[in-house]
Amino acid sequence: MMFMKQCLPKPVPGELLKKSAVLKPLFAKSNADKNWFLYSTAKLSTSVAVNSSLQPVLMNFSAYEEKKDPGGNARVLLIMHGMMGSKSNWNSLSKVLNAKTSFKVIAVDARNHGDSPHSPEHTYEHLVEDIRHLMGNLGIKKASFIGHSMGGRAMMKAALKYPELVEKLVVVDISPIGTSPQLMTMGKYFNAMKSIRLQPNIPLSVARKNADQQLSSTISDKPLRDFLIMNLIEAEKGKYTWKINLDALANNFMTKIATFPKINSTFEGPTLFIGGTKSDYLNPEEEPEIRKIFPAAQFAYVQDAGHLVHVEKPAEFLSLTIQFLLQSH
């Protein structure tokens, strides 16, 4: 498939051998996606036993499987995005991961994001139950996990609570120990997004341009503004809204998401932490403490990458991740 070739990474031999190395389509939108087997949550049952104290939601997802496995024995890779992201952010990467590993790749929209249900509750405990709930509905007994930022912490928490569900774990630019000072600015972003005022009956491209201009007075980082504005959608003809549940995210962020929950267990399985050298979300100084929780942890840092490692340096990210997933442990 020609559309995949531009995403294929160049190998980075031996990088993963070092303990610290520097280094959309649930709804097919074009004929280029016609060879992929796609699935919808609308076909799933809801007869899965769940933690009665935490009400899960059934997350929307995209499944990438170039050749459908008739026996249903394909290894599975679950991916969860970060705060204010969506499964569509992982579209191209998911296709490459499936093609290069033969894993069935499932990228989810976390609750209050993308096409998944909204809820006033947004904690790592809820995100973990959502993951378990989806795996139960899909009949997945075990999978490898990838999570970025908020998604990375949700996947870590899931591995610690339900280690029997996790084959391998990849955590992208986030730590279970420290908290980046940048996370403390999220309230500013939420308030800026809530303050956006747009004229009705204008094209989406114009609405997003106007939103960008208004956000620029608070958020100077243009790539970050572009990322946030991807959440602006046309709710009904001529009227615009945020696809994410801004109120729930803002209400829960500082107390439930900004810091990792208390830990009283370990995950012994293969684990890879991938950070960016320009990011402070994952610090090499924290590696000894992280290994107390994840004893098998390996660490790799992608040169000149910031917090969005997989977006800024996709070839390097894919090379590290594919090598790790295919490695015998």
UniProtKB/TrEMBL annotation:
<dbReference type="GO" id="GO:0005739">
    <property type="term" value="C:mitochondrion"/>
</dbReference>
<dbReference type="InterPro" id="IPR000639">
    <property type="entry name" value="Epox_hydrolase-like"/>
</dbReference>
<protein>
    <recommendedName>
        <fullName>sn-1-specific diacylglycerol lipase ABHD11</fullName>
        <ecNumber>3.1.1.116</ecNumber>
    </recommendedName>
</protein>
<keyword id="KW-0378">Hydrolase</keyword>
<dbReference type="InterPro" id="IPR029058">
    <property type="entry name" value="AB_hydrolase_fold"/>
</dbReference>
<dbReference type="Pfam" id="PF00561">
    <property type="entry name" value="Abhydrolase_1"/>
</dbReference>
<comment type="similarity">
    <text>Belongs to the AB hydrolase superfamily.</text>
</comment>
<feature type="domain" description="AB hydrolase-1">
    <location>
        <begin position="76"/>
        <end position="314"/>
    </location>
</feature>
<dbReference type="InterPro" id="IPR000073">
    <property type="entry name" value="AB_hydrolase_1"/>
</dbReference>
<dbReference type="GO" id="GO:0052689">
    <property type="term" value="F:carboxylic ester hydrolase activity"/>
</dbReference>
